[in-house]
Amino acid sequence: MLFLFLSPGSPKADTWFFVGEDKVAHLGIFLIWSFLVVWSFERSHLSLKAFFWVLSGALIFGLMTEWIQGYVPYRSSDLMDFMFDAAGAVLGLFLAYFMKKELNLADKKFDK
């Protein structure tokens, strides 16, 4: 993740596939990261406190990378990038939680 966020940009900034491509990338990277972190928890460790720490870690990491990007050549700090980082982290948390919950219900259903 650090390589993606902190590598120097390109002086040819108009080589986008579509407008907002970087926002989709921020959302997707943080969604995948938070999903995998929560997915790695055991059932007994799924608590509000665990979700708080995962979300806090994602937010701090997002803030730090956006701040550092202001000093990287051809990159810029952008509040909207951070907002998409946060949205991705929240979506990943909820997606992992609900998928684990449904899989646990399915396991209980087939254990009978």
Task: Please provide a brief summary of the model.
This protein has 112 residues and is mostly helical.
**Can you tell me the overall shape?**
elongated
Could you tell me the mean pLDDT?
Answer: 84
Class inferred from helices and paired strands:
mainly alpha
Count of alpha and pi helical runs: 4
Could you describe the largest sheet, including whether it forms a barrel?
none
Distance, first to last CA: 43 Å
**Proportion of β residues?**
under 5%
Question: What Rg is obtained from the alpha carbons, in whole angstroms?
Answer: 17 Å
Characterize the structure shown.
This is VanZ family protein. With 112 residues, the chain is mostly helical. The protein has a domain at 45-112. It has helices spanning 2-6, 21-39, 48-69, 79-111. The chain is elongated. The mean pLDDT is 84.
Topology at a glance:
Layout: H1 2-6, H2 21-39, H3 48-69, H4 79-111
Domain VanZ-like: 24-99
Organism: Marinoscillum luteum
Keywords: Membrane, Transmembrane, Transmembrane helix
